[in-house]
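Records of this kind hold a single protein each, on a pair of labelled lines. Below, a sample record shows both lines together.
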Amino acid sequence: MDATAIETLFTQRDGSFLCARWGRPVAPVIFGLADESLDVFRAAIRAGYTHARHPVADTDPESGANLMLFFVRDWAELAAVPDLDRLTGVPDLPDRLTAQDADQYRLLRFDEAGGIRACMSFLNMGGRLSDAHPAQLAERVMMQSALTFAPEIVPSPQLAALIRAAYDPVLPVAATQPAHALRLAARLAV
């Protein structure tokens, strides 16, 4: 993976560049899964962040949980989530996702240093994701929560290596200059 490919992964729709990682331990909570699938997702999250050398905690002192995964069979189920508009800052989220025919939605919040402070992922298992293998979906959800990837990603060893490189403690938790892709590419070449 070269610097150009890495830059593309973090170039947002508006043309800006943003590569940010978590600035605090990840404290996940998962809603809407059966116990057997829940264990798969918990293991994938723990393994992925362990590979990145980033801590996973039981709770975040500020918010309790900071990585929230919501699984539904239909976007209308989100209407039952208390204070969803306040939680997300997005009015009428279920209607918007239905109108866009979306199968997933990720919302990130950032801290003062630009690092990821919270991630909310919403997945509609009643549509295109209904046939997804739980372990593969868990790996993808983990990877999408680890960095501010702009496009949809498909898990691969190269992306796992990129995530690990981005969590190098000598790198900033957030970068807005495309030259950051050169730093990441150099770490992948080692």
User: Anything to note?
Assistant: Strands lie at 19-20, 28-31, 67-72, 104-110, 116-124, 174-175.
